[in-house]
Amino acid sequence: MAGYLTYLKRRFSWHTLRRVGLALAAPVSALVFAAIVSVIILSVTGHSPADAAQQMADSLERPRTFANSLNNATTYYLSAVAVAIGFKMRLFNIGVDGQYRIAAMLSAALAGAAFMENLPSFLRVAMTIIVAMLVGAVWAGIAGILKVTRGVSEVISTIMLNAVATAVVAFLLNPSRLAVPIGGSNNIGTPPITEGGRVSGIPYPGSTSTVFGLSILAVAVGVGYWYLLSRTRFGFDLKATGLSESAAVASGVNVKKMVVASMVLSGAVAGLVGVPQLLGSSHTYALDFPAGLGFTGIAIALLGRNHPVGMAIAAILWGVLDQTSNSLDITGVPKEIVVIMQGVIVLSVVIAYELVRRYRLRLEQRDVGAALGTTKTPAPAEVTT
Amino acid sequence: MELLGITKRFPGVIANSDVNVAVRPGTVHALVGENGAGKSTLMKILYGMQRPDEGSIEIDGKAATFHSPADAIAAGIGMVHQHFMLADNLTVLENVVLGSEPRSGGRLDFKAARGKIRDISGRYGLGVEPDRLVDELGVGDRQRVEILKVLYRGARILILDEPTAVLVPQEVDELFGNLRELKAEGLTILFISHKLDEVLSVADDITVMRRGTTVASVAPRETTARQLAELMVGSALPVPELRESTVTDVPVIEVDGLTVNTPDGRAVLEDLSFTIHAGEVLGIAGVEGNGQAELVEALMGIRSLDSGRIFLRDKEISKLSTRDRRDAGMAYIPEDRHRQGVLLEATLWENRILGHQTKAPSVRGVLINRGGARKDTRRIVEEYDVRTPGIDVAVGSLSGGNQQKLIVGREMSGNPVLLIASHPTRGVDVGAQAAIWEHIRRARAEHLAVLLISADLDELIGMSDSLSVILRGRLVASYDPKTVTPEELGSAMTGAGEGAA
């Protein structure tokens, strides 16, 4: 009991407060800075920043906007986790974009295939998800294997694999192969997924839009990511390798194995990025399937500092900014101002995090000094003869 | 130069309080003290990296205020850091001019710089060749390049931070020769060291620091190393020494014909064979860079063998991974703790898990056992006297000595059968050194086999049951630590004298 009390005391001490404050300092100051830049740009270009902000705030009050923001956030979050798994190992998986597109396309083809019709709904959805993860894992795994066997930088190989993925998707998405024409348009896509293969949305009060049913998948991935990193040996090895490869090697980590494993894992999560959209709303992988989500994931992983909760907040923020920006055009403010704001956030948060990191280190060293300066005097040297 | 009543406070702690040092021009002044005695803070103040809260610095009787190292350099103060700051793939010339490149008409004037370097080198007898690649230079040469670098920038007062830590006795003698020349030319040298014999041989005045303040100023002629050490720690002094032999006839590790080549096929370790028995400490003496690092990494499975075999308790481990070797009972205190020993940005308890990712109490199956790891970290902090406010602070904020104690404590846990200890007491203070020795002695009595690599010859001689010398990747001589002198070892290490069998 007493132990628990001291535990509570420690949890809610001034130090905890300071820790939380420091953790928030960087993202908050980046947001403030980005807001200032946006205000300046709007003022200079003859728009009223106050009106624009009011417009965005008003639009957020509409339930539909918020439901759509959550849907955006779901995909962004999955993408960010995929990137963060790499980041934790100091691997830069720029290929999330290609990984999710090829995964979404192939899993859409499977989910829409005729033979799936007779399977139970649960099995169909599960198979779609698993295939998407497998495809993403394989695609990212190529970069991992190239890195450990040939020393190819994963930055280069994943960028190139993005281009290859684009080409492969374009090749397969052809009426003579996996695609069918979509009625009423000149668009083509994979055969539509029928009712049993879809995941129905969660109704959002006051809105015709529903929240993706698979947003719970994003939550599960977040929890899994947290558990893996903080509770498992694998996660420890992963973090250790990211913090110091040489120390990890000396501790017995097989770094090559870890590189491949983390790329595969990152790719598996990347494979999920398109799935909530696919099974919740599009029901087909067509030419107009959202692209570029992999890059948004990088921004969100940076802003959320690879932290499962931080990235969730960042993903929701991004989703809200995206959705509310639609309302700006009505007042004649170019909605690209939000893209500028997002860009400034990412750039400034990277700098802010580094500044806070240094400050925190100095603070902690000072703490150690303070704590030791007030403890007992150094014990006299042991004399052993 | 004079430091008067320097006081530097960090919130809650006084790093320096009322420090008074008077350095006579044209002398070698030694500053000695344990780690944490405040020497580095004082150096930082003197070199303009920090500003004192109270007190003043006077140079030639004039008060000086430094806002940055650039101010200190301008005032003629130069610093030779303990860790060399040289770019290996540049020449001596390029390294020296780096940051203060000589220009003439927008172009780099290497010719003038080369002349100036030759001139300085000749004047102080440094023997530095401007066009050699730093990569090709030995440790002693690199140090002379560092000294030349500060002289090139016009320093009249040189601060040398533990300059002998990386040198063998012969190189130390050369360094001291250089220092005497510098002194003869009217330069002033502030020399920071742990090694009291050296301080006594080279210094004209000695100032002792303890717990942030100057406790004594003594003349080397009127004191002994023991008295100095006792001033430093405020009590009696530990000696590296083994008691009765605990060597058994059970071989723990047998190395047979171990050979490691560089990627281009040059042998860095050639046909090494040795056996360490349970309860035996085998010391390896050698000038740094003669294959010690490769030997340690080959034994730990970090570097693969080109030929030869290693047996641990009669089981061949030559092909096993580092993790399997650790699981088989090998423990490892690395030479460079920041590179291989700790995760600086991780907490103490997370660092407790490092290297023990497969062993209780750090893990349970595939999961991390946080409670177990934390509890055992507290035990290490307690038993090994790691000075820290808690186990949740980042290891990087502890002092080097405390980091080392944590590593030693960690590696000693889980009852290892073989400890590979590379410079286990490098950079730790006298108290910690004694404690680490004592832990090694105790484990040895419980049949631990130890491979000890150290640059501190007293430590090697005192702590080893048998001694071998490594030179250019080969074990060239064996000595009985009971009879060998540091001088004999030193000459075998440099290949000067052919060692006795």
Structure overview:
The complex is a heterodimer of chains A (385) and B (501). Chain A is mainly α and 385 residues long. Chain A has a domain at 70-332: ABC transporter involved in vitamin B12 uptake, BtuC (Orthogonal Bundle), CATH 1.10.3470. Chain A is built from 16 helices and 4 strands. In chain A, the strands form 2 sheets. Chain A has a two-stranded antiparallel ribbon. In chain A, strands 3-4 form a two-stranded antiparallel ribbon. In chain A, β1 and β2 form a beta hairpin. In chain A, α5 (96-112) packs parallel to α7, α6 runs antiparallel to α11 and α8 (215-231) packs across α9 (233-243). The model of chain A is unreliable at 374-385 (pLDDT under 50). Chain B is α/β, with parallel strands linked by helices and 501 residues long. Chain B has 3 domains: 2-233, Rossmann fold (3-Layer(aba) Sandwich), CATH 3.40.50; 238-329 and 415-501, P-loop containing nucleotide triphosphate hydrolases (Rossmann fold, 3-Layer(aba) Sandwich), CATH 3.40.50; 347-397 and 405-413, no CATH class. Helices cover 33% and strands 26% of the residues of chain B. Chain B is built from 17 helices and 24 strands. In chain B, the strands form 6 sheets. In chain B, strands 6-9-10-3-11-12 form a 6-stranded mixed beta sheet, with helices on both faces. A 6-stranded mixed beta sheet of chain B has the order 18-21-22-15-23-24, sandwiched between helices. In chain B, α13 (370-383) crosses α14 (400-412) and α14 (400-412) packs parallel to α15 (430-445). The radius of gyration of chain B is 24 Å and the shape is globular. Classes of the chains: A mainly alpha (385), B alpha/beta (501). Chains A and B meet through α9, α10 and α16 of A and β2, α10, α11, β20 and α15 of B. Chain A: Pfam families: BPD_transp_2 (PF02653). Chain A: One of its GO terms (cellular component) is plasma membrane. Chain A: It is a multi-pass membrane protein. Chain A: Keywords: Cell membrane, Membrane, Sugar transport, Transmembrane, Transmembrane helix, Transport. Chain A: The chain crosses the membrane at residues 20-46, 66-87, 99-116, 122-143, 155-173, 210-229, 259-279, 337-356.
